[in-house]
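Section 3.1: Structural characterization of target chains.
Under the original work plan, the team committed to producing a structural model for every single-chain target entering the pipeline before any wet-lab resources were allocated. The record below documents one such target. The sequence was received from the expression subgroup and is listed exactly as submitted; it comprises 295 residues.
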Amino acid sequence: MQLVVGVRFKKAGKIYYFDPEDIELKLNDHVVVETARGIEYGEVVVEPRLVSPDEIVSPLKSVIRKATEEDRRKYEENKAREQDSFRICEQKIAEHNLPMNLIDVELTFDSSKIIFYFTAEGRIDFRELVKDLAAIFKTRIELRQIGVRDEAKLLGGLGPCGLTLCCSTFLDDFHPVSIKMAKEQCLSLNPAKISGLCGRLMCCLKYEQDYYEEIDKLLPKIGREVMTPDGRATVLDVNKLKQLVRVKLLLEDDVVEIKEYPLNRIQLLEDSAGSHGDEEEVLPDDPEIISLLEE
């Protein structure tokens, strides 16, 4: 087991483990650490604890020191410089007439490098832009192209639910989301309703997916025959949240009655065996939905 401390460098950013050495640290302390890209300033979000070697990305870097007042001042100065750098870079992009949108600027704590994050439709030849920026800032320059999900995470905003975007609030990483999740959760396959501000499938489709996968194993499929307290019936619909099954009963004199039963009062018939199993998935033919599947 290895003693580590979890440090985050950006709000809702990834948590990285460092060796605290002999420094006493607690939650919300600020520290100066050594990273792969140089010296950085971060916040302790996981107090020192023992973890297995499998959870550690080697080599494990060390915490250099607990942040001092001077470190905090330098961090604030760097933030002010980032704003100036953003403005200057935008001017240079316009001068070179490059089809790219500048999203964010990050200055490493030791000022050894400035990273410019941008979005663009395709590959951009920004060699002349880098030369201009290097001549102005007299330090290493890195231009990093990011996707629309990362753009939303950096810029933030309000989601369809009215709350601040999950990715810019607490999600430290993006998890795979598929159109199959929307189908299993009985959501409308209208792209406008299942897409986030980034234009991709909403991350929150992942939150309840485990429940829907489990309940799908228990609920009968539509069209299957089941036994109810009132006799044999055909499944018309299921309510996955309330665990209810709506069925069509054929009574005497060919009278049809529609009834709803709790799942625990429904019994599968032997000739309907396999009704809980996976069925062939039929994908939608809407071009907009297909584009979501391909992204």
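The two ends are 40 Å apart (CA to CA).
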